[in-house]
Write a structure and sequence with these properties.
α4 packs antiparallel against α5 and α5 crosses α7. This protein folds into 2 domains: 40 residues, no CATH class; 255 residues, LCP protein (Aminopeptidase). It has 297 residues and is an alpha+beta fold. Helix content is 40%, strand content 26%.
């Protein structure tokens, strides 16, 4: 009888070990296969996260980017995290969008951050979109250089030859059309290029493309060991009201996604001009409402 009980204990122990190995394997390589009831350390409810990119400040002598987060608001995105549908939808708002800024009348949307900080920008976006902004991340683009280098570069298709020189900033962009594995500096050059007929609108499309590629690359099993360093690096170059625990859960959720689970949108419209603001972007409110209703609710 004792021997039977011992054999049963050994079988139970072996079964627990096998299940533990299977769970570890699934969590590392196929986390999406883990049932939601036993899944831990990931996002469980929808979130709307404001991501604000600031301008890079450059050293006047060397032209190199300075590691600071005190630049002007340069890009504005809303990330809708949808754990039930395994999706991240990204809405880009052109920085020259002419909108109502609470308490300050009609302004370019990037003025909201200057006039009242991140809180006023969140309020402006909530009134524009009807969405509740749960959290924010303010990013200096210098973090892109760091993250891409940590990941060993990212594979990206450069849609056309990009050649531009600005000697005042010691800026030399020379990217050829085609597939490339770009390092951090080359990725930054790709993001900074705006000297074509599409201007800022083309740059928004490139921002979304790079963001998606970084997410997918970071989520690959071969890069999972780099996640803690990537998160630590990111926290050194961003301002956010997300806790470290929330960032980890967000990173774990991203690991369950593939490229087809990321969807990018832009607040469309047409260019215009203002007597006191210069060039502006006039948002098509009807199209924006449709995008919000179909993809961000």
């Amino acid at each position: 009888m004792k021997r039977k009980r011992a054999d049963s204990s050994r079988l139970l122990a072996i079964l627990i070990i096998i299940l533990g190995i299977a769970y570890f394997y699934a969590n590392l390589f196929i986390p999406r296969w883990i049932p939601k009831t036993i899944r831990v350390g990931t996002v469980r409810k929808p979130l709307n996260i404001l991501v604000v990119g600031t301008d890079i400040t450059f050293d006047k002598k060397t032209g190199e980017p300075l590691e600071t987060v005190d630049g002007r608001t340069d890009s504005i995105l809303i990330l809708h995290i949808d754990p039930a549908r395994y999706k991240i939808n990204v809405l880009s708002i052109p920085r020259d969008s002419f909108v109502a800024v609470p308490g300050h009348g009609i302004q370019k949307i990037n003025a909201a951050n200057v006039l009242g900080g991140i809180d006023l920008l969140k309020k402006t976006l909530s009134e524009l979109t009807g969405l509740k902004i749960d959290n924010y991340i303010e990013v200096n683009p210098y973090v892109v250089i760091k993250l891409v280098d940590i990941l060993g570069g990212i594979k990206l298709y450069v849609e056309k030859d990009m050649v531009y020189t600005d000697r005042a900033q010691n800026l030399h962009i020379n990217l050829k059309q085609g597939w490339h594995r770009l390092n951090g500096k080359e990725t930054q050059d790709y993001l900074r290029f705006r000297h074509d007929m599409f201007g800022d609108i083309g740059r928004i499309e490139r921002q979304q493309k790079v963001l998606q590629t970084i997410f997918v690359t970071l989520a690959s099993p071969s890069n999972i060991v780099k996640s803690p360093l990537a998160i630590k690096t990111a926290t050194n170059y961003v301002k956010t009201d997300l806790s470290l625990g929330q960032l980890v859960r967000l990173a774990n959720f991203v690991r369950m996604l593939s490229g087809r689970d990321f969807h990018s949108f832009m607040a469309g419209g047409e260019p215009g001009a203002s007597s006191f603001s210069g060039s502006i972007w006039l948002i098509n409110k009807i199209d924006l409402e449709t995008i919000i209703e179909e993809n961000f609710r």
